[in-house]
Amino acid sequence: MFRFLRKKTITFEQQLERLSEIGIRLHADVKAEWLLDTNSREQFEKDPYLSLLIVMGEEAEIDGEWRWVSDDVWYMDAECIEDTGDYVRILEQLMRLTDIKLHNVRDQIDFENRKASISFEYNQTEYFWELEFNDDWLDMNIFYHFKQLIGENKEKYFATCTMGQFALVCFLNMEQFNQLNRLMTAKWEWA
Length: 191
Known about the structure:
Elements: H1 12-22, H2 32-38, H3 41-46, H4 50-56, E1 59-62, E2 65-68, E3 74-77, H5 86-98, E4 103-110, E5 115-122, E6 125-131, H6 141-150, E7 157-163, E8 166-172, H7 174-183, E9 189-190
Antiparallel strand pairs: 1-2, 3-8, 4-5, 5-6, 7-8, 7-9
């Protein structure tokens, strides 16, 4: 009787197509059918785009090999700093999202003295960043620092869609950012 009041379902395929149009695509080696093996079609369609982006932002074992499902989105846990090497892994993700290459990336995390830092080389210049130490929580300012580092090279920015201690991270231009916010109920913010 009130069919017109029912929310129109955005199919799994429509979500994939729309994200691809925005610039968030599956890795070339990953097939859409694999995604349906991870979650049901109903799960992907219950909260359009969010479940799909979460799966696309993960590293997964596909055909016996570990790989990123997409190089355009990262699903991260902000409570991830436990030992030396963790900030190196964070910068590896930022490099993956931006196609920027850093060299000699090293970090130091000192829980006893409550200090964290990271150093690296970029464009033949050495950098050292002191990071805010907040127990095992990531210093989210690392996104801002990284953008400042590459600022003259890109017209894109890091954007996050946070869900408690978890977040989706993308490197987007203004149009992509606005399109994602129009598509989703969960909102994106500039990092």
